[in-house]
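S.,

Sequence below, as promised.
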Amino acid sequence: MLDPGRRRLIAQFARFGVVGVANTAMCYAVLFLLHDRLELPVWLASAVGYGVATVQSFLLNRAWTFAGTRRAQVARQATTFIAVNVICGLVFVGLNSLLITIVPLAAATVLAMTVIVVLSFTLNRLLVF
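The prediction came back faster than expected:
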């Protein structure tokens, strides 16, 4: 049987995963709209999609995933969250741009997001929330 602390961590990671699915859907929607419909380069469409999903992520994670954890001032939390997501965004854009050279864009985006979920959860849990 898992101790309560480990159960809370698993539940928190599960909520983070649900938020991540919503964020990935948002990122996909924006990325494909900008790339397929408006013909922007993948790197730019990926960056904008990730940025829009980042705003959604902050709001959902603050209100739900990490609710009840230490509550810093919103300004400090938002600033640290942005810094974490700039790092994650750069990793995402780089991976997505690299992976599209070997797999289709949809698969590249899923693979890149998989890496980002683990990196983002770890950094958000340790530094932001």
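The two ends are 27 Å apart (CA to CA).

Coffee later?
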